[in-house]
Specification:
Helices cover 38% and strands 16% of the residues. It has 237 residues and is of the alpha/beta class. The chain has a single domain, classed as 3-Layer(aba) Sandwich (Rossmann fold), CATH 3.40.50. A 7-stranded mixed beta sheet has the order 3-2-1-4-5-7-6, with helices on both faces. The longest helix has 17 residues. 42% of the residues are buried. It binds S-adenosylmethionine.
């Protein structure tokens, strides 16, 4: 009889992945946490300008996005759902902190105000613009196959479906906000899983409360990740 293989669940994978990402950013949190969260909290003032005043992301998700960008070092990011920009700026600050300022493209179909320029990473806003329009413009502007990280904090539209796989780099990460219950992150995953390109990508659930508390992050996060297996590897230490 062959030995029973070491099968790991997505829960095991998720715990290990977030531990690695948060450990890597621990000195940033200690050294620059107040400055980073100060800038992100300052974005709350933009609510006064919002045409559609809705939810933003909690502290733990802000840190998950910063740490993820700091770890993975994407050059080009696309985001659906700008609102007051906490997620966009957290990602852009993570890119800067990694020493590789890049480009972040972000759209919001309901809001039309500008974010302050807080990073060296260039944030290009598509205000009052749906995701299909942004993905179309990015494709026309030569970004096909070059987007390293996609943050979905809005609902995917039918028109996005042919464009998203074209835009993604071969080893992209798709970040799903609101990944719980029947919320939009879970709905977006269902849509992505039906697409040939993403059908076999791996899923990392959001970090657990216990993991976040270890880093002094008081609230929860619903940030999940979808990524190709080639992005996983083993190291000696
Ligand atoms: C939860 S808010 C985003 C919060 C933001 N990420 C932050 O950190 O402040 C979601 C926003 O995405 C917009 N949205 C949802 N689906 C979208 C789509 N397919 N294209 C463009 N904007 C979308 C909504 O109008 C809303 O303003």
């Amino acid at each position: 009889m062959p030995l029973h293989p070491f099968h790991l669940s997505y829960r095991h994978l998720s715990m290990a992945l977030w531990d690695r990402v948060f450990e890597n950013a621990a000195s940033m949190l200690r050294g620059r946490g107040d400055e980073i969260f100060g800038k992100l909290t300052g974005l709350e003032a933009l609510r006064a300008k919002a045409q559609y005043n809705t939810g933003s992301i909690p502290l733990a998700s802000q840190w998950a996005l910063f740490s993820l960008a700091y770890f993975t070092r994407p050059a080009i990011v696309a985001e659906v759902g700008t609102f007051i920009g906490k997620s966009a700026v957290a990602l852009a600050m993570g890119m800067d902190a990694a020493g590789q300022p890049g480009e972040l493209h972000t759209c919001d179909m309901s809001n039309r105000f500008d974010l302050p320029q807080l990073t060296q990473t260039t944030v290009t806003q598509y205000t009052g613009c749906g995701s299909t329009q942004m993905f179309t413009e990015m494709t026309e502007d030569g970004y096909a196959g070059r987007v390293d990280l996609v943050h979905l904090d809005g609902r995917l539209m039918p028109g996005d479906l042919p464009l998203l796989p074209q835009l993604c780099a071969p080893q992209a990460v798709i970040v799903l906000d609101d990944f719980e219950g029947i919320e939009k992150g879970v709905q977006n995953l269902k849509v992505l899983r039906n697409m040939e390109r993403f059908a076999n990508w791996l899923l990392a659930y959001p970090p657990t409360r216990e993991q976040l508390q270890r880093y002094g992050l008081p609230d929860g996060s619903t940030t999940a990740l979808l990524f190709p297996g080639e992005l996983l590897g083993f190291t000696a230490q």
